[in-house]
């Protein structure tokens, strides 16, 4: 029984041993040996042949569950039945050379092994009739194969053990005795079984790829293998099935045959195809069911999701797409980063490659996500909404829609009014001919479409329209949800920003991106909503903290509002003034590293930089605030502010007065005579009365680009209002921000080796860093008496030590001398005895 | 639990056991010896890998793995100098027999009295009694059996043979040991030294440096220095009185410099070149052995002594003859090693005198400058691995010393600075690329931050005199990058430190740095945990980079936050308090301060915040008033620069006074020691003494500030 120590674990033992095994298993001598682990590691090479096998999955494989015997039995029975039915077929198949044999397997030792697996399988099948325990196979040829495997592991296992095994395996060659069989079964350790199944899977897979039509039934085998108790085998099975399906799934959707069709007698060819399709779809369904059920088990979860993603990616047109989509969409919210990323990629690729499925999958996916958002009350991972950003719409889809709606009634009328009389003169003959032609054309069109797999513009448009409405439904739902939350929150309850609205940021981003597609009817409401979200309130005294949205999110609201407004050709009659006020105050709330600087830069760009003509008072207020802002924030934020500031000055030449210090606060009188930096309303800040002194300090900024920008702006003062200074940095605020951000700077390759050109200039002896009062302490020399005392004590200690050493040595010496006396006595006695003996001897 | 206890116990030991300081020094010394020799920079990484580890083990300082993370920062050292010349003879000088030896009987009696009665002496007495007893016993035995005497004699000779064999075996291994007296060719004098003899010699030598008594005196000095090294050496016997010992050592140390200079006929400000020229002269030949003996034995003395005061004394004396070391490269490298050990030790006056000696050697012997720079840097890095409340001052001192040393020859040291900067930068880049914990930890530790701080100070000191712009921008990038990589209030201490560095840079370069952007987190209100902590954990930012999580909501942490922010912010304001745009600089911080003042629940903070607000407001109004009457515009650079220049130079602004009071307050609390407050102090000191300050960048520094 000691041989069994090689098996991986007792659970595994239970799995591999057929139910018939006598229950005399001694669990005590079961342990995981290092050799086994090595062996598994070493098999990587061997497995590399099956490119589709996921190495990671295998590696991740840890534990195994104990199998229930009933399941095993059922499996065996099934297999037996199936194999028995296939027997006659296989018998003649045995004669011809199996295509698989053409490809040899390279073993770990580097020798080529030609695959006799087909034969082996046949043999196995025959064996299965004899015994239920055929699973482990006792046939000669198979055992030969096993011998090879054994040989491979020989170096790792104890030699004696292997010899023992070999002799026991060779023994059953002659007589098929049940006792021997059992022993052999025990010999088959788990890894051998695993290897065998792997080989079997590979074989089946290769056969499938070779000739799918002929070998379609192997799918069943593969499916049953992936029902194995061994998790590793299951994973391998799933992956190989995936590879096979990816390859053999046709580019059309398989249709369920109607009763009528089934009733009709068909040719052999058609029958064969039908059978093929039927089997394929049945297996595919079973496979999907398996995936979906396995998805719930944590150790199969990544594999199952990966398989589904791959299937969806390659065959979004095929049957059962709906269930696949549902699973994948559900996993967009997965807590596992890898899985989520995978799902996102899949959905994105569906959105991008609409040609594969004619956009049907897109609309389904968008709808599913919308439902998902609704069900989860907007508490999802941001990634699940972010995928929308890869949606693509035709530019004209909204216009057409509106046009069509407008046109339709007209058309109809015209049709009724004009077409009717026109039709009259047409003769019947002509009519039929026309009909015929149009019919033929339609047919051709349909055929063409079916072949080329594209949609008509109308269909396409309607699908896109539906997608769009589902998309915006989701977006609006998120906005509404955010609103309701932020309204219900009490003032005291300040939550960390961003935590409660995971979906808001991608939602706003999406709204910004698709702003040109938003229906005009929603605009007013949307803008009002955004205004509220951006934290604007009519009461000016409110502290800005009661809004639960983060600064970045509020800025994003402003950006979206402007984008929406601008992309609708600014035809919208909404007052965006409030957003300016909001931004004016938000600028001060911005905190580097907490808020996203890019959002700030984008807000500056969208609201101020891209705007056409600005109100003078407002522009002045922003100019002043941006200049002040640049003094307190890092260089990247400062440059973004300065770029905007410069642009504002260029656009509003009257504001250039702020660059000059006219006594009396500028020539332009305004409502407020004195500048109030803390004003909440840009119109009431009185910025026009201020002077941009900040720029004179910004000229001393450590960052060269900031300081040069500041001096560039200052140079505008001397130019006349129509002139503009030589542009030094022709970028928008966002680009300017990105150029100077520290991340960008750090990601740049390090500057070439620093070369310092320093003139030789020897400094005198004066000190530069140490202050004299410190140096003074050094010179206060030690007091003479103290020194004497200290030196004396030093001496005394040294003397004491040496004296001690000396005395100890002496003491030791004396002591050992005394000890020697004993030895001396002993020796003396010995000598005495010796003498006596000698004397005696002499006497004799 | 056991681990925690152990840590605590070790901490206790470190703090309270006096022997710890000594041991640390010893260990440090050992490390210098143990440092694996490296072929080149390629092997450096793994070489350094284990060195800090060993330090950790040895000092048992910490289990924290972070400390060992930055190993790549150190410079590689050429250790070739270590064993060179160590096996030279120890310089016993053949004496002139003409010199008188006086025996004074009265000395012998006083010996016992002079020696202090310490534990060792009592033990010695006990042993003495024991010996007597045992000897008696032995004698009895011998009397009883006369034959035993023969046997014993035989055994003793055997033993001797065996021992000498063993000794010679050991000699083979201990060839490094240069104090092997028994192997010395000319047997040293064993005549007793008496007080009278020494006085006579001293007199002779002071009268005539060339007198043969010098040899005798130096020999006596040699024996004194090696006293106690070999307990069985005959030279031990020469000293019977502590007085003699003291006489010899003080006289030789105080006078030898003058004597040698007189002998060699060199002036006080001789440099290395002159010494080298002298080496071939005949004069040198006669003095050479004397000088060698003196220098070598002084070193011996340095390595023997343990008392800080005597060490400082010896160092000050030895400093006078630093130039003489140039003739003996091996000796000077040995000297440096001792010096660096002493420099890194915790005692202030000792490490100062050690440093002054290092600086002397480095400036007088250009060859050793490179070694000095490398060694000093590495010592600094090793010493700054741990920062706690007690050693912040010392680290600051070490940093200043290092800056001193590196400023001696900026051209030469810049290569090293650049190398170090490139290392720092690449660590930062790596961390910002991967954002992995391990990489981040390489930055978030004291070695890295202290290193950055060091170069910041170096740049500050030399910015005006040299063109250090590339270095400047590198340092800036590192500071910005570090601030960016560590957001959040946990890293506030780290960011405050960075802000201080920026303040320093700003003061020296007159550039504008937006300091407030680093301080916003300090000025925003956070939730204070409602439950009052029972134990008052003092939060001291000067000795931490990262705030422990449990303190984040504590009141003390927030207090410290705001107070430190006020300090840094007022330094920033103080620098620009006369600039025309001061009101605008203050706008945003002022708004935050006001909000903080309104909302904070911590009573202690109300007053300092209010004070800062008032001061800033006052200064703001002052500037606004002044600039209303001027007629120039912001683009008139010259006028902007000259704005309020007079007031600035008079150094009498209220805000300045406010700032210095804050800084002093802070210093009085024993918190951050910053260079800026120090200059304040410095200036006051100078003014009180009526001394015009030295020209240099320090001065500019405070001119800006005053």
UniProtKB/TrEMBL annotation, chain A:
Gene Ontology biological-process entries: DNA replication initiation
Major subcellular location class: nucleus
Ranges where the CCAAT-binding factor domain occurs: 555-710
Entry keyword set: Coiled coil, Nucleus
Stretches assigned to the Nucleolar complex-associated protein 3 N-terminal domain: 196-287
Taxonomy of the source species: Eukaryota, Viridiplantae, Streptophyta, Embryophyta, Tracheophyta
Organism: Digitaria exilis
CC per GO annotation: nucleolus
Full protein name: Nucleolar complex protein 3 homolog
GO molecular function: chromatin binding
From TrEMBL, chain B:
Region (Disordered): 1-63, 80-110, 162-192
Stretches with biased composition (Basic residues): 1-14, 22-38
Main location: nucleus
Compartmental location: Nucleus
Pfam families: Noc2
Assigned GO CC terms: Noc1p-Noc2p complex; Noc2p-Noc3p complex; nucleolus; nucleoplasm
Compositionally skewed regions (Acidic residues) per UniProt: 167-182
GO biological process: ribosomal large subunit biogenesis
Keyword presence, Iron: no
Keywords: Nucleus
Assigned protein family: Belongs to the NOC2 family.
Name this protein carries in UniProt: Nucleolar complex protein 2 homolog
Taxonomic classification: Eukaryota, Viridiplantae, Streptophyta, Embryophyta, Tracheophyta
């Amino acid at each position: 029984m000691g041989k069994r120590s090689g098996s991986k674990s007792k659970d595994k033992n239970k799995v591999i041993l057929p139910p018939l095994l006598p229950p005399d298993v001694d669990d005590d001598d079961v342990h995981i040996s290092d050799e086994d682990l090595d062996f598994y590691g070493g098999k990587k090479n061997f497995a590399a042949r099956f490119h589709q096998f996921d190495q990671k999955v295998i590696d991740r494989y840890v534990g195994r569950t104990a199998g229930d015997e009933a399941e095993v039995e059922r499996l065996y029975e099934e297999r037996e039945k199936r194999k028995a039915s296939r027997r006659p077929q296989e018998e003649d198949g045995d004669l011809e050379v199996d295509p698989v044999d053409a490809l040899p397997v390279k073993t770990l030792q580097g020798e080529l092994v030609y695959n006799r697996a087909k034969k082996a399988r046949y043999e196995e099948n025959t064996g299965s009739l004899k015994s239920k325990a055929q699973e482990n196979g006792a046939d000669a040829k198979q055992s030969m194969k096993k011998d090879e495997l054994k040989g491979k592991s020989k170096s790792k296992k104890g030699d004696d053990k292997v010899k023992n095994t070999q002799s026991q395996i060779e023994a059953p060659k002659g007589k098929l005795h049940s006792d021997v069989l059992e022993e052999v079964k025990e010999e088959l350790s788990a890894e051998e079984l695993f290897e065998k199944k792997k080989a079997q899977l590979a074989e089946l897979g290769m056969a499938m790829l070779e000739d799918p039509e002929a070998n379609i039934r192997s799918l069943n085998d593969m499916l049953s293998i992936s029902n194995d108790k061994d998790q590793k085998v299951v994973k391998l099975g799933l992956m190989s099935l995936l590879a096979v399906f990816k390859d053999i799934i046709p580019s059309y959707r398989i249709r369920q045959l109607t009763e009528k069709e089934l009733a009709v007698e068909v040719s052999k060819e058609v029958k064969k195809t039908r059978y093929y399709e039927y089997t394929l779809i049945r297996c595919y369904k079973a496979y999907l069911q398996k995936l979906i059920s396995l998805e719930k088990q944590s150790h199969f979860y990544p594999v199952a999701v990966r398989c589904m993603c791959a299937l969806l990616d390659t065959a979004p047109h095929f049957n059962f797409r709906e269930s696949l989509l549902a699973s994948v969409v559900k996993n967009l919210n997965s807590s596992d980063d890898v899985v989520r990323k995978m799902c996102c990629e899949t959905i994105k690729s569906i959105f991008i490659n609409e040609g594969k499925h004619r956009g049907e999958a897109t609309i389904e996916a968008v709808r599913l996500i919308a439902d998902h958002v609704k069900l989860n009350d907007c508490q999802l991972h941001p990634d699940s909404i972010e995928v929308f950003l890869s949606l693509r719409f035709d530019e004209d889809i909204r216009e057409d829609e509106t046009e069509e709606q407008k046109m339709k009634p007209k058309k109809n009328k015209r049709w009724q009014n004009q077409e009717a009389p026109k039709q009259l003169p047409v003769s019947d003959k002509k009519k039929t001919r026309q009909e015929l032609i149009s019919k033929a054309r339609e047919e051709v069109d349909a055929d063409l479409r079916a072949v080329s797999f594209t949609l008509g513009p109308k269909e396409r448009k309607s699908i896109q329209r539906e997608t769009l409405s589902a998309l915006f439904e989701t977006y609006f739902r998120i906005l509404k949800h955010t609103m309701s939350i932020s309204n219900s929150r009490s003032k005291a309850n300040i939550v960390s920003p961003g935590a409660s609205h995971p979906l808001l940021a991608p939602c706003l981003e999406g709204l910004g991106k698709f702003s040109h597609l938003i229906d005009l009817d929603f605009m007013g409401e949307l803008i009002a909503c955004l205004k509220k979200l951006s934290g604007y309130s009519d009461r000016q005294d409110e502290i800005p903290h009661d809004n639960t949205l983060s600064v970045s999110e509020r800025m994003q609201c402003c950006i979206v509002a402007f984008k929406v407004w601008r992309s609708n050709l600014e035809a919208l009659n909404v007052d965006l003034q409030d957003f300016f006020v909001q931004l004016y105050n938000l600028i001060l709330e911005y905190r580097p590293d907490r808020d996203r600087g890019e959002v700030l830069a984008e807000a500056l760009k969208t609201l101020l930089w891209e705007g056409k003509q600005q109100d003078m008072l407002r522009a002045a207020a922003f100019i002043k605030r941006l200049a002040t802002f640049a003094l307190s924030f890092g260089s990247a934020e400062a440059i973004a502010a300065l770029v905007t500031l410069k642009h504002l000055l260029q656009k509003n030449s009257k504001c250039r007065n702020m660059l000059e210090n006219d006594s009396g606060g500028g020539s332009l009188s305004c409502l407020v005579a004195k500048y109030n930096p803390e004003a909440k309303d840009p119109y009431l800040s009185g910025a026009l009365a201020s002077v941009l002194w900040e720029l004179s300090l910004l000229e001393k900024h450590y960052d060269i680009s900031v300081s040069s920008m500041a001096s560039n702006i200052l140079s505008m003062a001397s130019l006349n209002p129509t002139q503009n200074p030589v542009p030094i940095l022709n970028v928008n605020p966002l680009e300017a921000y990105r150029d100077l951000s520290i991340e960008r700077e750090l990601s740049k390759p390090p500057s070439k080796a620093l070369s310092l050109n320093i003139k030789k200039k020897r400094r005198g002896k004066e000190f530069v860093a140490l202050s004299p009062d410190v140096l003074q302490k050094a010179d206060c020399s030690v007091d003479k008496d103290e020194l004497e005392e200290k030196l004396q004590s030093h001496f005394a200690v040294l003397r004491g030590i040496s004296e001690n050493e000396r005395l100890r040595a002496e003491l030791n010496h004396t002591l050992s001398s005394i000890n020697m006396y004993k030895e001396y006595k002993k020796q003396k006695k010995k000598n005495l005895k010796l003498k006596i003996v000698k004397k005696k001897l002499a006497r004799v | 639990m056991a681990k925690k206890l152990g840590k605590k116990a070790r901490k206790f030991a470190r703090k309270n056991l006096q022997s710890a300081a000594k041991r640390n020094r010893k260990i440090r010394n050992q490390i210098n010896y143990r440092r694996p020799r490296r072929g080149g920079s390629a092997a450096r990484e793994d070489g350094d890998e284990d060195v800090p580890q060993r330090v950790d083990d040895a000092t048992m300082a910490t289990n924290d793995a972070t400390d060992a993370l930055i190993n790549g920062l150190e410079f590689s050292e050429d250790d070739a100098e270590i064993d060179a010349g160590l096996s030279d003879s120890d310089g016993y000088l053949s004496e002139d027999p003409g010199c008188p030896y006086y025996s004074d009987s009265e000395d012998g009696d006083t010996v016992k009295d002079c020696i202090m009665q310490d534990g060792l002496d009592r033990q010695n007495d006990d042993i003495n009694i024991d010996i007597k007893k045992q000897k008696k016993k032995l004698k009895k035995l011998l009397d009883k059996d006369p034959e035993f005497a023969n046997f014993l004699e035989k055994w003793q000779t055997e033993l001797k043979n065996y021992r000498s064999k063993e000794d010679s075996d050991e000699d083979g291994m201990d060839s490094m040991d240069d104090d092997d007296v028994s192997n010395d060719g000319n047997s040293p004098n064993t005549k007793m030294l008496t007080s009278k003899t020494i006085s006579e010699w001293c007199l002779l030598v002071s009268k005539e440096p060339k007198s043969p008594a010098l040899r005798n005196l130096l020999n006596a000095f040699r024996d004194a220095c090696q006293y106690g090294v070999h307990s069985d050496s005959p030279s031990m016997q020469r000293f019977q009185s502590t007085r003699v010992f003291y006489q010899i050592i003080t006289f030789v140390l105080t006078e030898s410099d003058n004597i040698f200079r007189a002998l060699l006929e060199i002036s006080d400000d001789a440099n290395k070149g002159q010494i080298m020229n002298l080496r071939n002269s005949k004069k040198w030949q006669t003095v050479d052995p004397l000088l060698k003996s003196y220098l070598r034995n002084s070193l011996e003395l340095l390595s023997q002594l343990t008392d800080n005061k005597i060490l400082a004394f010896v160092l000050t004396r030895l400093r006078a003859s630093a130039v003489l070391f140039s003739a003996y490269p091996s000796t000077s490298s040995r000297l440096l090693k001792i010096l660096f050990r002493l420099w890194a030790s915790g005692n202030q006056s000792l490490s100062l005198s050690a440093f002054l000696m290092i600086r002397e050697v480095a400036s007088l012997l250009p060859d050793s400058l490179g070694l000095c720079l490398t060694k000093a840097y590495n010592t600094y890095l090793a010493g700054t691995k741990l920062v706690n409340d007690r050693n912040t001052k010392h680290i600051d001192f070490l940093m200043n010393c290092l800056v001193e040393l590196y400023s001696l020859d900026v051209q030469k040291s810049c290569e090293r600075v650049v190398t170090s900067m490139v290392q720092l930068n690449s660590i930062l880049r790596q961390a910002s690329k991967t954002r992995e914990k391990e990489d981040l930890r390489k930055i978030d530790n004291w070695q890295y931050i202290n290193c950055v701080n060091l170069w910041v100070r170096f740049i500050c000191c030399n910015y005006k005199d040299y063109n250090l712009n590339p270095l400047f921008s590198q340092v800036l990038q590192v500071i910005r990058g570090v601030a960016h990589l560590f957001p959040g209030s946990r890293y506030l201490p780290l960011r405050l430190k960075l802000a201080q560095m920026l303040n320093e840079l700003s003061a020296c370069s007159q550039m504008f740095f937006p300091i407030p952007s680093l301080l916003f987190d300090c000025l925003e209100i956070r939730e204070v945990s409602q439950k009052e902590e029972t134990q008052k954990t003092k939060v001291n930012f000067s000795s931490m980079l990262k705030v422990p999580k449990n303190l984040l909501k504590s009141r003390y942490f927030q207090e410290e936050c705001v107070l430190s922010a006020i300090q840094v912010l007022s330094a920033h304001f103080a620098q620009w308090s006369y600039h025309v745009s001061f009101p605008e600089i203050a706008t945003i911080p002022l708004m935050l301060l006001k909000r903080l003042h309104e909302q904070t629940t911590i009573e202690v903070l109300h007053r300092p915040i209010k004070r800062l607000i008032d001061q800033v407001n006052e200064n703001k109004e002052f500037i606004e008033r002044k600039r209303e009457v001027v007629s120039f515009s912001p683009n008139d650079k010259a006028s902007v620069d000259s704005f309020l220049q007079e007031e600035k130079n008079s150094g009498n602004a209220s805000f300045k006074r406010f700032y210095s009071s804050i800084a002093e307050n802070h210093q009085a609390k024993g918190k951050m020691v910053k260079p800026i407050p120090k200059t304040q102090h410095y200036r006051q000191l100078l003014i009180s003494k009526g001394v015009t300050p030295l020209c240099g960048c320090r001065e500019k520094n405070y001119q800006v500030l005053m």
